[in-house]
Design brief:
16% helix; 3 helices; ten-stranded parallel sheet; eleven-stranded mixed sheet; 37 strands; UDP N-Acetylglucosamine Acyltransferase, domain 1; Udp-n-acetylmuramoylalanyl-d-glutamate--2,6- Diaminopimelate Ligase, Chain: A, domain 1; alpha/beta
């Protein structure tokens, strides 16, 4: 594909050889001659001068002294690179058309048009599969569960009974939707009585969930992941949680029961949010932070444990790093005071 064709696809302006043929895509530090790469994060600027890539997608205001490399100037280099990646390296279809003979489909299930079902997949009593959906090998769609149009379940995904998956949803291998919430009532004798988990999980359109995640069914009502949310691998979402539209959660993060995250929130890796809280729209939580209080004002950035607003958290972190020196200074001052006291 020519650079000019790529530029047209991604909305970039070419600076250099527009007729250059691009044969592949690579990381900026590893790309070879004939390949395209991109530069969006300033941390990778150090690799630009030495990259062997023939063309680089950069920002509109990027400064370069290299005349041997073609630049594609874009408003957002990262997004432009994603479009280039999709065009030049389209994804491989995970399933062949039709239903594998080794799959089980209940006679009372409803399966739409152009559905693909892999080996050992199970579509159980009363389940509904929308047109164009793909249910990969070993995945289970439980009794009365629904999977919407053009959604994709990778191998070994489990959708528990009654749960509802919207359109254009992607769920990766090993993820469980609708397992019991963690509900146990303590008894006088020190044992626990399991609380029935009678609700469901609702996943709205255009959601993507990574591998080995758990989304618990509600005790009563719904656990809900709203439209456009993106969930990384190894994420725990407890019963009756609501994840707002277009919110993103990184790996190993978790949300405790009955907490509601607003729209366009960002949750960093290994961050945790306590139960029965509400987080306003556009809340950002730094990696490994622990949120223990509700956030009522939109746009707050939180960090630390317990999580505080980022400026306060950084001041505290800076003060903690000074503690060893301050302790030595205090000890020295104490010694001086003791000597002066002895002289008196």
């Amino acid at each position: 594909m020519k650079v000019s064709d790529i530029a047209r696809l991604v909305g970039a302006k070419v600076e250099g050889n527009a007729d250059l043929e691009i044969s592949g895509i690579g990381k900026i530090e590893e790309a070879r001659e004939g390949e395209l790469t991109f530069l969006a994060n300033p941390k990778y600027r150090k690799f630009f001068d030495g990259t062997k890539a023939s063309a680089v997608i950069v920002s509109e205001d990027f400064n370069s002294d290299r005349s041997d490399i073609t630049l594609l100037r874009a408003k957002d280099p990262y997004v432009a690179f994603v479009f280039a990646l999709k065009s030049m390296m389209p994804p491989v279809e995970p399933l062949q058309p039709g239903t594998n003979p080794a799959a089980y489909i209940s006679p009372n299930a409803v399966v739409g048009k152009d559905v693909r079902i892999g080996a050992f997949a199970c579509i159980l009593e009363g389940a509904k599969i929308g047109d164009g959906a793909k249910i990969s090998h070993g995945s289970v769609v439980g009794e009365g569960a629904e999977v919407g149009e053009n959604s994709l379940l990778y191998p070994n995904v489990t959708i528990y009974p009654g749960c509802k998956i919207g359109k254009n949803v992607i769920i990766h291998s090993g993820t469980v939707i609708g397992s019991d919430g963690f509900g146990f009532a303590p008894k006088m004798d020190g044992t626990y009585e399991k609380i029935p988990q009678l609700g469901i999980v609702v996943i709205e359109d255009d959601v993507e969930i990574g591998s080995n995640c758990s989304v618990d069914r509600a005790t009563i009502g719904e656990t809900k992941i709203c439209r456009g949310a993106k969930i990384d691998n190894l994420v725990q979402i407890a019963h009756n949680v609501v994840i707002g539209e277009h919110t993103v959660m990184a790996a190993q993060s978790g949300v405790a029961g009955s907490t509601k995250l607003g729209k366009h929130c960002m949750v960093g890796g290994q961050a945790g949010v306590s139960g029965h809280l509400e987080l306003a729209d556009n809340t950002s939580i730094g990696a490994q932070s622990g949120v223990s209080k509700s956030v009522k004002e939109s746009g707050k950035v939180l960090f630390g444990y317990p999580a505080k607003e980022i400026r306060e958290a950084k001041r505290i972190e800076g003060a903690l790093r000074m503690l060893p020196e301050l302790i030595e200074e205090i000890a020295a001052l104490r010694n001086k005071v003791d000597k002066l006291t002895d002289k008196e």
